[in-house]
Design goal:
Blueprint lengths: L1 H7 L16 H20 L4 H15 L3 H14 L4 H9 L5 H20 L4 H21 L24 H18 L1 H25 L4 H19 L4
Helix pairs in contact: 2-3, 2-7, 2-8, 3-6, 4-5, 4-6, 4-10, 6-10, 7-8, 7-9, 7-10, 8-9, 9-10
Length: about 240
């Protein structure tokens, strides 16, 4: 679990990723979501919905160390611009942010804030969506080729001759996320988890088409996009 924490958050200390860490992604996601949801609920007791939503967004950025946001910015710059494959990877490795990245990150943060502001605080719903997004990350790392010849996320790949695994923990995470969402908001919560999972998978599929596989940045981007899509579905007028 410590290795999963170290990859998904600034917590956990210095711990190199490993294939076994993927099994803990759903658990870490649920814990992060529950923490963000608790902050959201507590803030709503002190401030109006729009302020409470902003505090929740800020709490999520703090708890994840902006790692996933950085992945979203890098992925947008590399995947959306009209570039050759190798150039895309170079752009994603560049620490500077371009127009595609800044624009995408701004839009996503605004959508997350506005969706939360439109909802009543539901910590279990946030836990479900965050669990689902990390489950997709784990499934992608187990089943999609790695796009770089080297990199931090390469440590998730099994050694030569080893089995990649059936992805049972990721599947269990999705089921658990749907169950949590159902308890939180009923059918709309389950629909939100499904939509979030579909959006996260779409990001990975898009990256595979343009890069030939995933990178650590793509995993972060898929998680943020999936969570945001789920929040938007939950905030719809059911």
């Amino acid at each position: 679990m410590r290795r999963a924490l170290a990859f998904l958050t600034p917590l956990g200390g210095a711990a190199a990723p490993s294939p076994s860490a993927l099994s803990w992604f759903p658990v870490v996601g649920a814990a992060l979501g529950l923490a963000v949801g608790a902050v959201w609920w507590g803030a709503s007791e002190l401030w109006p919905p729009v302020v409470a939503a902003a505090v929740a967004v800020a709490a999520d950025l703090a708890l994840t160390g902006m790692l996933h946001l950085d992945g979203l910015v890098d992925s947008a710059d590399g995947l959306l611009a009209p570039l050759e494959r190798e150039r895309r990877l170079e752009v994603m490795a560049d620490p500077r942010a371009g127009a595609f990245g800044v624009g995408t990150a701004t839009a996503v943060l605004l959508l997350r804030w506005s969706a939360l502001a439109a909802l009543r605080p539901r910590p279990l719903l946030v836990a479900a969506l965050w669990c689902g997004s990390r489950s997709v990350m784990a499934a992608a790392a187990r089943s999609v080729p790695y796009a770089r010849p080297g990199g931090l996320a390469a440590a998730f790949l099994p050694e030569a001759g080893a089995r990649r695994g059936a992805g049972a923990p990721a599947a269990a995470g999705v089921v658990g996320a749907a169950a949590l969402a159902g308890v939180a908001t009923g059918a709309s919560g389950v629909a939100a988890v499904v939509a979030g999972g579909a959006a996260a998978v779409a990001v990975v599929a898009f990256a595979r088409r343009r890069l030939g596989g995933f990178t650590g940045d793509v995993l972060g981007a898929s998680g943020l996009i999936g969570e945001t899509a789920g929040l938007l579905v939950a905030a719809a007028r059911w």
